[in-house]
Amino acid sequence: MKIDVKTIDNKAAGDITLADAVFGVAPRADIVARVVKWQLAKRRAGTHKVKSRAEVAITTAKMFKQKGTGRARHGSAAVVQFRGGGVVHGPVVRDHGHALPKKVRQLGLRSALSTKAAEGKLLVLDSLASTGKSAGKTAKLREQLVKLGAENALIIGGAELDAGFVKAARNIPLVDVLPQQGINVYDILRRDVLVLSKDAAAHLEERLK
Q1: pTM for the whole structure
Q2: Are 107 and 98 in contact, with CB atoms under 8 Å apart?
Q3: Do the domain assignments include residue 66?
Q4: What is the C-alpha radius of gyration for the chain, rounded to an integer number of angstroms?
Q5: Average pLDDT of the chain?
Q6: Residue 155 lies in a domain
Q7: Which own/partner contact pairs does 129-138 have at CB distance under 8 Å and 24+ positions apart?
Q8: Are the beta carbons of 23 and 122 closer than 8 angstroms?
């Protein structure tokens, strides 16, 4: 698959051939859904907790005598039907993460990349460096992204990101910037356009072939 390479100023900078095995596979929506579910499950803190009958701080004395009151017999006040008592089958601290095979995760990433390429929403830039007087300026970068048609975009750079570019991008709504090792299915899907640097494209081909 051949795709045009552009500069950050939307000028032609040659072209690049992307591997069909990474950017041209038949998308699998079911696999993508599994990967997204796996990602979101790993993000959950799992710190929700309620106290059981054994954990509430309450007297263990019998509430009233067994007979002669006309009421139902009761012992501990920690049971669930009384205010201040424990909770039955409530949430406890736990890990919501689950295992997902590496091959499934890789196929999900290839499917997400191929979907963006098939929809024409994949851009490759020669560099993400911010230079000149406008380096690190949010207004200038916003203008450049509008020209590229990437107002709502996930931008993936090389192993090390340019500090000025990151500084300029962090105040732009709907724009996320990640290093190549941070690319993931969920962030690809939540943004309209995927922007890759040439280094990131090469890294993905090497990683997913």
Answers
A1: 0.85
A2: no
A3: no
A4: 27
A5: 93
A6: yes
A7: 129/162, 129/164, 129/165, 130/162, 130/164, 130/165, 130/167, 130/168, 131/164, 135/164, 135/168, 136/163, 136/164, 136/165, 136/167, 136/168, 137/168, 138/168, 138/169, 138/171, 138/172
A8: yes
pLDDT over threshold 90, residue 177: yes
Q: Which residues, in sequence order, are bridge partners of residue 20?
A: none
| Closest by Cα among 18, 179, 38, 200 to 105 | 38
Per-residue pLDDT at 134 exceeds 90: no
Q: Angle at Cα 55 formed by Cα 49 and Cα 58, nearest 5°?
A: 125
Tell me how far apart the alpha carbons of residues 188 and 48 are, in angstroms, rounded to a whole number.
29
**Over the range 110-132, which residues count as b (16 or more CB within 10 Å of their CB) and which as e?**
bbbbbbbbeeebbbbbbbbebee
Q: How far is CA 106 from the centre of its chain?
A: 15
Q: What is the pLDDT of residue 112?
A: 97
Terminal CA-CA length for the chain? 14
Name the domain count of the chain.
1
Its domain, for residue 24, covers: 2-37+100-208
Q: Is residue 196 part of a domain?
A: yes
CATH of the domain at 131: 3.40.1370.10
Contact 88, 55 (CB under 8 A): no
Q: What is the layout of strands, in order, in the sheet containing 193-197?
A: 12-17, 2-6, 122-125, 193-197, 153-156, 175-178
